[in-house]
Write a structure and sequence with these properties.
Length: 288
């Protein structure tokens, strides 16, 4: 399945004491890059959030926001984290010994220190499980969103591939016609110049001309690359980087086709191919 790297999902879950709010946004990026913005009293969940996002999403620049909106009637249900308070007191005493002239921490400063004051409803295994369940749910919603976007991109790419196949089929019968036209022109010029036709020279000139305009190898590779793109689109593995490489290969063959062109028709096909490949490449830049 093809997944886009662009997606959005949000979740609000009511629990005792307030509402847990989680938002996920993602855009395209070469690798997986996480930016977490968690409330101070949710910072302890950062390792869990990173682990769960990394396990679900392969690529993209992902921003995760988590907050806990407390109800007014529960704002007074506060508790102190004794471990944090003890650590703060120990650090404060150490600094006081080294800097006797410094002022001690005030009660206000201690209470505003991250992690010192906690809400009772945020403590315990029950809240941890709620956060895990919420992350599983929102990550699935994000994945579903990216899959829907990926399906649209896949359809667009398949349309472009069909157009490329039609252009390749259009070019193939042009080559024998171009050789015949060149033979007719060459024969006419030789008759005008020599009043006769040197058959051996004509054969040599035709051979050189045919070799110079021969694009059968390029057309074969174009067909093979198109088939490989289709195979990757139906694969269950990450496809973005592999498809990006194939776009470079397709573009190389289209350029070679244009450089060997001796007719307006072939040149037009080469330009059309490059336009289609660029359109696909723009889509593929956003595929995971």
């Amino acid at each position: 399945m093809i997944y886009s790297m662009t997606g959005f999902a949000s979740l609000e879950r009511e629990i005792d004491g307030g509402i847990l709010v989680i938002e996920l946004r993602s855009v395209n990026h070469r690798y997986l890059e996480l930016h977490l913005k968690l409330d101070d009293h949710l910072r302890s969940f950062e390792p869990l959030v990173r682990e769960m996002i990394s396990a679900k999403l392969g690529r993209g620049k992902v921003e995760c926001r988590m907050s806990f909106v407390r109800r007014a009637e529960t704002t007074k249900s506060l508790v102190l984290d004794d471990a944090v308070v003890d650590q703060l007191a120990e650090v404060s005493n150490t600094l006081k010994n080294k800097f006797p002239e410094s002022q001690p921490l005030s009660i206000s400063e201690i209470l505003h220190w991250p992690g010192v004051v906690q809400h009772q409803e945020l403590a315990g295994n029950q809240f941890v499980e709620i956060v895990k369940e919420s992350l599983v749910q929102i990550l699935q919603e994000m994945s579903d969103s990216r899959a829907r976007e990926g399906a649209k991109m896949k359809a667009l790419i398949l349309e472009r591939l069909a157009e490329i196949e039609a252009l390749v089929a259009k070019v193939k019968p042009l080559l024998p016609m171009q050789v015949k036209e060149y033979q007719a022109r060459l024969t006419s010029k030789l008759k005008e110049a020599l009043s006769s036709v040197d058959e051996e020279r004509v054969r040599q000139e035709l051979l050189l001309f045919a070799q110079r305009i021969d694009v059968d190898e390029e057309l074969t590779r174009l067909t093979a690359h198109v088939a490989e793109v289709k195979r990757i689109l139906d694969d269950n593995k990450l496809a973005g980087k592999r498809l990006d490489f194939l776009m470079q290969e397709l573009n190389r063959e289209a350029n070679t086709l244009g450089s060997k062109s001796v007719s307006v028709e072939t040149s037009q096909v080469s330009m059309s191919l490059k336009v289609l490949i660029e359109q696909m490449r723009e889509q593929i830049q956003n595929i995971e």
